[in-house]
Design goal:
Blueprint: E1 2-7, H1 33-42, E2 45-51, H2 57-69, E3 73-78, H3 87-94, E4 100-106, H4 121-133, E5 136-140, H5 146-153, E6 160-163, H6 171-176, H7 182-190, E7 195-199, H8 202-205, H9 215-225, E8 230-232, H10 245-255, H11 262-276
Parallel strand pairs: 1-2, 2-3, 3-4, 4-5, 5-6, 6-7, 7-8
Helix pairs in contact: 5-7, 7-9
Length: 286
């Protein structure tokens, strides 16, 4: 059994997926829940968390609408820019909606504007809002982001933070076998107990089913976060750039350290997601 904590669904004519370009034929098309469902059934995935592919209110409401219609969508990580003037009003519009679990922000938001202003008041206020309301803050991390993110973490000790895609080692570094500065930066941020990390984006980082390229990364994540703060995520359909859904699941399994107890494997496969996203608090949850 798995809970896939990182999938995207999009409909191009909605018009706010500005990062999607026609020349990217593998991704420049619609991806619907009905396309995803058989892939989940074939790979023993019981439920998914839908993650924003556009930082807009419309995207968040679109995903929440899908979640209301499809039972296997356990929750939604929305997309609202915390630095926009309209963040507060947009947040209030979706706050409290069923299956809303939190919001995802780009790691670049956390970069300091100057050495004299390491923290952006608006971003910190948004994080404290999520903290107070029990939502999760997800962060799309790229190389160079982690030190800036760490600056904020200790200021919101009760906010569940989830780093995406191994905490952003970067494809170039993975391909070249370069482990630093990622290793040291991950160890520093993992010292905070409210920070979690997804084993996601793996097949694109490795450019295919190449566990040997990520074995050291996975081992370091288990060493620093432990088995209770790691999560499985497919990053479908972006994962199609590296392989099919089943290949992502098999790659994930091969990245689990040898000797890891089955209870710990299940924690990363689905139990941690139940706890971190409070899915186990749903009516009828086991």
């Amino acid at each position: 059994m798995y809970t896939d904590t990182h999938v995207h669904l999009w409909k191009l004519d909605r018009g706010d997926y500005h990062w999607l370009k026609p020349e990217n034929a593998a991704l420049y098309r619609d991806f619907s829940p009905d396309m995803l469902r058989p892939l989940l059934e074939a790979n023993r995935v019981d439920e998914v968390i839908l993650v924003q592919a556009a930082a807009t209110l419309d995207e968040t409401e679109y995903m929440l609408g899908l979640a209301e219609r499809y039972d296997f969508i356990a929750g939604v990580i929305g997309g609202l820019n915390p630095l926009d003037d309209g963040f507060q009003s947009d947040y209030e519009r979706v706050k409290g909606r069923g299956k809303l679990l939190g919001f995802r922000w780009n790691g670049t938001f956390f970069h300091a504007e100057s050495a004299d202003a390491p923290v952006k008041p608006g971003l910190l206020a948004a994080m404290r809002l999520l903290e107070a309301d029990g939502y999760v803050a997800e962060i799309l991390v790229q190389p160079g982001d982690l030190p800036h993110i760490t600056t904020y973490v200790e200021l919101v000790p009760e906010l569940a933070i989830v780093l995406n895609h191994l905490g952003g080692p970067g494809k170039a570094a993975v391909q070249e076998g370069v482990m630093e500065p990622w290793m040291g930066q991950i160890a520093e941020i993992a010292a905070f107990s409210n920070v979690n990390c997804k084993i996601s984006g793996t097949i694109t980082l490795a450019e295919g089913s190449h566990p040997e390229k990520l074995t050291k990364h996975a081992a370091h994540l288990f060493e620093t976060f432990g088995s209770k703060r790691l999560l499985f995520g497919s990053d479908w359909p972006v994962a199609l750039l590296g392989g099919g859904y089943g290949e992502v699941v098999r790659l994930f399994e091969r990245l689990l350290p040898e000797g890891l107890a089955e209870k710990e494997r299940d924690a990363v496969r689905f139990r941690n997601a139940q706890r971190i996203y409070k899915l186990d608090c749903r009516e009828g949850a086991q």
